Amino acid sequence: MKYVLGVYIFVFSFAFYSKTTIAQKVNDFPKKTDPLHVKVNKFDKLMLGNHWNEGAIMQYVIFPPAGLERPIMGPQADCLDPTSEMLAAYSHKYAITSDPKDRDIANQIFDAIEKLENVTGVPGLVARSFNQTDKPLWHEEVYWYNEWHSSSSMPGYRWLGDLSSDKFTSIFYGVGTYWELCADEEHKRKAEGLLDRFMGRIVDNNFKLTDLDGKMTLWGNFCPDLPHQALNSLKMLMGLKVAHHITGKERYNAAYHMLIDRYHYDDHAINAKILFPPEWRNVGDDYHAARSLYMLMRLEKDNSLMIKYKMSLNRHWYDWKDMDLSWESSIWFIMVYQVLTGEDVFTPARQQVIKDMWGFDRETNEFKIPQEDGSFKLVRSEYERTAAAMIRNYWFGRYYNIIDPKW
Residues 165-195: pLDDT tens digits? Predict the structure, then answer.
């Protein structure tokens, strides 16, 4: 299908705002020499045009002939990450522009996170992703995260279960930012209800993420009675602090202080960053910690706890200050550190990393599509990864006056 750019913009506007599930294949890529604001604007259109799945943002999209006309084909275990990043991006953008169109997009993304709960049929149980389909799609069998279910509450949909602690962080980071900066009163109430049901179910299950069968998910262990990562203690403290701040329910404040007073989660949080041996350092863990510290430290008022959270941030900074900044979210760690400490840490070299941010290049690959007889068919197709973190970085940096709009 070919598009004339001017015609495409017209069609995209009507298709997107009518909330259609049919996605256009957007082809207008920026140049690496373009100013940052031009690159962000074009990658934003690519994301909303090619990765939009009823408001959820797909992390990886395979185009026809291996994929479908709708952007629902590909690995989907991490779709809550770009969805929360785009929700945070549009929340920060709306806080700057006050443009109703920006708020409308944020509302639609939030509605998709609500749908991730509704599709499971269980209050407080959130899916990793969903697809509008009445039969399994080929990627469900091929990609390793394959706990797919047919929806009993939304016939004609399938959803991916086994939620993990990093998606817990995505929900509180994305929805918390949206509630703080963008949501109107109606959507604030919806956000409060979603976080209350989600966190309430976790507290009721002794601080474990549990699945449809009631059993703890593979990476859903925040439980004080089970050995777990120190990072998960930090994540849980953040989630409880945000849940109490947004819902006002004392049960979350009581749970927060119980985990601190009885189980020393605040001490665990100090060691959330593994520093030695260096080969055990994990940039993905850094990302979950950065989001957790960003939400937690802006809400905590107890100085004795803040000292411990600052110790955790300083352990992370020991690594971040010398980190290779090529990964899309690594420059955001530097932004978070500056926001939380008030220190000016943006050297010319780090500013240049921001100016050089890039989303993705469209690539081509062969995909093994399973056939009914048990064989595989090789199909060559184009695909895209996600630029959501880049877009979030930009509007976060604009909001906190780290990024010059002229860049």
Answer: 999 999 999 999 999 999 999 999 999 999 9
What six digits make up the tokens of 307?
């000292």
> Beta strands of 9-163 (E only): which ranges?
52-53, 56-57, 61-62, 129-132, 148-150, 157-160
Cβ(381)–Cβ(66) below 8 Å? yes
| Distance separating alpha carbons of residues 61 and 47, to the nearest angstrom | 10
Q: Which CATH class is domain 5-126+163-399?
A: mainly alpha
Residue 4 has pLDDT above 50, yes or no: no
Cβ-contact 46, 58 below 8 angstroms: no
* pTM above threshold 0.70: yes
Question: In the structure encoding, which two tokens stand for residue 72, read together?
Answer: 């629902």
Residue type, 378: L
Secondary structure (3-state) at 203: helix
Query: Would you put residue 257 in left (φ > 0), alpha (ψ -120 to 50) or beta?
Result: alpha
Q: Which pLDDT belongs to residue 24?
A: 54
- Residues 307-320 have a mean pLDDT of 98
The length of the chain is 407
- pLDDT tens digits along 360-394: 999 999 999 999 898 999 999 999 999 999 999 99
Average pLDDT, the chain: 93
> What is the number of other CB atoms lying within 10 angstroms of the CB of residue 50?
19
Whether residue 123 has a cis bond before it, omega within 30° of 0: no
Report percent pLDDT > 70 for the chain: 94
How far apart (Å, rounded) are the C-alpha atoms in residues 361 and 82? 17
Residue type, 184: D
What would the DSSP string read from start to end of 288-340? Answer: HHHHHHHHHHTT---HHHHHHHHHHHHHHHHHHTT--TTSTTHHHHHHHHHHH
Task: List, in sequence order, every residue forming a beta bridge with 380; answer none if it has no partner.
Answer: 366
Each domain of the chain, given as residue ranges in start order, spans: 5-126+163-399
Which tokens is 373 given?
């007889």
- Burial class for 106, CB neighbours closer than 10 Å (0-12, 13-18, 19+): buried
